[in-house]
Amino acid sequence: MLGATLFSSGQNGHVVTCAPRYTHAPFTPKEGIIDHRWISLIGRCFLIRRDLHGTQGTVITPCEGQVGHPSGNCQAGISAEYTSDGEDLLMGTVGIKRFRGGLVSYSDYEKMSTFSPNISVGKDDYMGYTVSSGHFLSQISTEFIGGAPRGNNILGKVLMYSRDKNSAIQVTSEVQPPQGITVGSYFGSSLCVVDLNNDMFSDLLVGAPRAFYKDEGRVFVYVNNRKGALNLQDPLGLMGDDIPYAQFGKAIARVGDLNKDGYQDVAIGAPFEGDGVVYVYHGSENGINPSYKQKLKGSSVDSGLRLFGSAIAGGVDMDGNGYPDIAVGAYGSNKAVLFRTRSIVNVEGRIQLSRNQIVVESNDSLCLLDGGQSHKCLNISVCFTNKDKGITSYAGLGISYTVDLDRVKIVRGTDSFRRMFFIDEETKEKVFMINGVHNLTKRGESHCSAPRTVYLMEKDSLGDVASSLSFDLNFGLVKSCGSDLCPVLNDSLHTTHTAKAFFMKRCKNRKVCVPDLAVDGNAILVGYDRNHTFDRHLRIGLVKELILQLTVSNKATDYAYYSKIVVKYPISLGYQKTSDCEHDHNLSENETQYQLSITCDVGRMALPGLSNKNFSLKFSTASVEDDFSIVVTAESQDVDANEDDNSKEFSIAVKYEADLVIKGYSKPDQVIYSGAVKERSKVEEFQQEIGPEIVQTIKVSNYGPSVVDWSEVTITVPKLLKKDEPDSFLMYLLQVEVIGSGSCNAVVNPLDIKSCSEAGCQSFQCRLGRLRHGEKVEIKLTSRLWQNTLLKLDKPVVVELETIAHVQPPSKVIQPDKGNDVTTIILTAKPSRTGGSGKSIPWWVYLVSVLGGIILLAGAAFVLYKLGFFKRKKEQLNVTPEEAVPMNKSHRASLLNYPGTREQETPCPTNTTFIKGTFFKKDYTPEYTMNFESLDKTDYKS
Known about the structure:
The chain has about 950 residues and is mainly beta. Helices cover about 5% and strands about 40% of the residues. The longest helix is centred in the C-terminal third of the chain and has 25 residues, at about 845-865. It is flat, with a radius of gyration of 57 Å. The N and C termini lie far apart (about 140 Å). Mean pLDDT is about 80; it is low at about 580-585, about 750-760, about 835-840, about 880-885 and about 885-940. Its main location: membrane. It is a single-pass type I membrane protein.
């Protein structure tokens, strides 16, 4: 593996190459054979002649002679470089002492090697995997740095070594790894010693290419505090683009001062990011700039490159332009790429004005255009200075530039608010930007372009005279270098420049005014009848417009330049128009999350001192719903003398006035209940078995004038006939339907009732949506009368079932008439004329009644038989009572007074009893009996 390690200390310096896997086996003279049992990877290095033509004949094999010893596989030269003072060659020996590893220093002058001690390292730590040196403890001492990527239990370790007074190598300190470093990150597998901040002390970059979760890789920067300690600059480290599996930090190299800013720069390889990438970072006064300055992709050079960035070398000027170049190895494709550094041109540009003060009210500095119009004007020139620091002077190199006038006044992409312009030399049109090309002068010299005239807008169109006029310059190099490598502008210097000119104002201080603006006014509410206005409240449905009448005054003697008012109002108001407001094109609406704003200029250019301006704004109130405020603020670009009166707030209270009317009816309003009591299971199975269907309709109407939102209708219906009898239902609610905007929370299929004073009632609410003037909502309740409850009563009764509905608008709504907020719907339930007693009679009652009647009849017949009733002759039976006994007058009167006669319908005597058509008088023994079976029974009242 000769060439596995290659190092050059620079022009006229040392060059060394190593073969770390060089093997050695002892020779046995007696037997004339090689003893293969003791073959060892001892490694060796060669010094190359400075003209690169062969070696100097010096072969360095520090581990030779230690065959068979634990140091026999030391692999010297796995890393190597000359010390910063150029006196010693520093080599890594990773396999020594059972792969504890170490460093060895070879003195070319003394021709001897010195090994580092094996303290502070453990087995398989691989100390010496990378080596470097620098001035860490002082500006004149030289310390060694060694990396052990498997040290610290595979977290990685970096040690600093120094020589004692006997030239022995000893451990000075350990570079502390950052907290949170992951196991197997290979911290210390790459090192770079470089003075980043140019303080003559060495700083250190340590690579951890396998760091974190997906081998993204990190490089940690340690800045020397000039007291012998290395401080970690950022715990997160450098990371490139943080690409998974990129192994950022696999190679790190100092590449010299690429941009000639006085600080050393570094290049970091990420060979597994795509086909390989190299990131370039610039040093700075604070250590290193954490953002990379350039990203070199192998694929942009050659699509066939693989593992681009696995090795990097720099710091050598290969093309002689005074700038160091970078060489990058692509291990996977056996190629190396040389990147030449472009020269950096240091140019300073500026705009030179003929004058920087303008008096608007005066007539001096006027220029005439071709149309005979006179304008305020001034001249400008563009100047450049060559401040190049390189060895090459770029006199004659072209610089392209643009000059943009009043760019800050571009609003929404329009140039309408720009206050000055050029005249195009060819088209004679107004333009706001010019372009040009300027040739660089000799180093250190300045040169300016020919003057160009800038014209100001007319006084009435000038607008803002409070802010300064801006002239913006942008420039860059003209890309025309032929076959040569084009230089670039130093991006650390500004490639832009802004010059400013100021307006001289009519104020005590010519540049700064102190106005005193104040706002006053009132809000007028106009009804649909324009002759009707409202002073205090905005009544929804009655007020059509809001007119804001404003007065802006300047109570100071100084002018209020570019004064304006800003009106902030809610989005519910609709802006219609403005009057008495200057420059309507300046009127704008800018929407924010909660409100809109109108900006209106006061005066064409300025509001003079001790003057005022009146104007009005008109808004539509069609969408207003809640109380709101309008805030009017007067302002200028100068500091106001008294800001307390610069704003005025108009608070508008909103009132709702509406007459909600509720009505209800039932269809039908009378029902008949009949039949026998049914089993509960049969009733619950078929709705038709419950009883007759009833549809009750509740109608809510808004008679205005305001719209009403979220009114609530409370509906109360009977539920139970008796509170202590949960099955005594009356009405069965099947459906609640809202026709219009709204919804109800009623539970359908509950059972309803008769009177709230005697029974349990069910109440539910319906929430109505928006009701505008003239709109209505209907609520339909579909129910069935639960007639079982009425059939179970002791006697048939007529029942009136009351459903009560009450509408309640929101509290903010004023109702002129509350007497129509409640309605009562009455449903009358009557028993049928042929209905039974209402109770179902068991079968055994009929059986017992029949048997009882038979027994009673048999007993009566037996008694009559014993009394001789059946012994009369047939002819006696044929004689009527009238024939047998004459009727006297008292008997006739008694008969006529009987209540069943048609002549007189008087109540039955309380001491009279009817039995089978025969009546008897109590406390009276009749002289006769009368049979009424032949009479019509309907003629009598029971």
